[in-house]
Predict the structure.
Amino acid sequence: MWPLGQGGWLNSPYGLFEAPSFTMHKGLETTFQYLTRTDNPAAVELLEAALDCPYGPVRELALTALLARPNRAIHRRLFGRLAEFDSACKAIFAKRPDRLTTVVGEIFAQVRPKSTKHHGRTTGQKKQREACGEESPANRPPVDGKLQKDFVRACEAVREFRLYDALPSLVEAAQNAHPSLTALAAGTVLEIMKAFYAELSAAKKCSKDLKTLRTRLTEVLQSAACAYKRHGRKELLEAFLMVAKPQDVVLRRILHDRKESAHEPLVRMLTESDEGGVIRLLLAFLEDPQTPQAALEVIGRRTDVRFVQIWAEHAGYPPPEVWKETLGRIRYLAWAEAGHPLWAQLDGPSQAGCIGLLLGCKIERSRVFQILEFLLQEGKPEGRRAAVAALEHFPGAKADALVVRTLDDRDPYVQAEAIRQVRRRNVPDALSRLIRLVETDQAPVREALQEALPEFSCKKFLRTFEHLPDEFRQTAGYLVRKIDFDAPAILLAEIQSLSPVRRRRAVEAASAMGAVGELETAITPLLQDEDHRVRIAAAKALADSRSQPTWEALRDALFDRSLVVREEAEKSLQKITASLAGQLEMALAASETPSQFSESLCDESC
């Protein structure tokens, strides 16, 4: 290491090298560009000495220059100092991953046994020696300490810099290295594939380079999966599952062949792994009607919250149509029973998605009905809403009774779904049960009532208004006003119609519905309508008015040219006066009571 002399100069055998100031970066870059291109061996020593400079820009330019040189020895020395570099220098390494890949690849190759051809043995002789135990990994001589340390640092570099190109040599080391190193190598393979899957998941659109890299990595891990009997590393199987596609030939062969050595551990990995890549693979199987039965059995056995929740969220209610055929092949779900602990751990949307899955699978219908009944009592809001909606697929007296009981549910959305079903089920007294609910102010319930009671619509009420008996108009009008959201807007449009018949009918219907107060400003001008029958209807309807302008309009109607209009206006004014007088008496009585009570107290005290 060359010391820093006075004035910021580096002392070296080749002279003084000036440390940069913040105003000399341009000249400094030119100097390092020259040191990068020159073939003079002294330049390498000078650049390596500059790595110890306390000034960051010098270290970074020196490292960049050294990495630019296609010299493996230099790269190996830089790898040996990797732990000394700061984050800025490591970022420079990350821009040239090929340099590190070459170094770690050589290290991984050193820990593998040498090829048998160098020892003059045939493949048959090698197998015979393996059978005798002479070639087993446990009988190999231990790896020397320095190489073992280099191997550990190489694995760290693969993880830190995501050296995907080093995967072939790393996988080979995980299969054939000394037992003291294979666990670390296999674990590193799994970690780097987790990082790769994270990149795949984060990418909004998979680029061509990413697809090509995935294909290359998959091919390497395919070979490792095929050789499971020899190496027995489960980490390599899990890494393979994280990037494999459902159509992968090797994956399907292992799943189909139960005698395959990798079949049992691979199925166990599919059942137990909570990695996103493995879960993604299982869900992707659902899109293929020819999915191996072993994969469907795995899906049916899993009861872990993470998997079921992700599956249910992807499914929704109802599940995707593309899953329909594959779901129809699933006859068993371990969590498909009322009261299973999993239900309490799922959130509302996941419970709803699970109900969709139950309906799509070939599960015994009586068990599904029990689950729906359980969820209507214990489920979360979204789950209970999906449960009552699913009752539509269950005819019979038990389902009818459950729907009727749900009419009184505390959740308006659950209640609304039950309302939509009750008439279709021909439940006794269905109409009267629904009419009892019209007083609600819950929008979902009112919307459901509007669907379930289409006869109580404002348009239909207007069409049949003149044919209804007088004693039925008030009742029907009240129900229409409670059920039909659009009634005020429809009446207003009719009041403004060019047809006097429609204007009159709209005013009379508004009166029967008790909607005059909402439409008072539109009805009052009709006291001046050219048709006297419209004026009569308006004068009669405005008896329920409470505004000063309407009273004045009724007072003016006392001088109308039509006797009947004048009489109706007078009756309305008398009714308004009587109503106001009654209100005044009640107000006076309320105000006098406290004073009389206080007077009686005074008399007693005296």
Notes: Confidence is low (pLDDT under 50) at residues 1-24, 116-123, 126-135, 593-606. The longest helix spans residues 563-605.
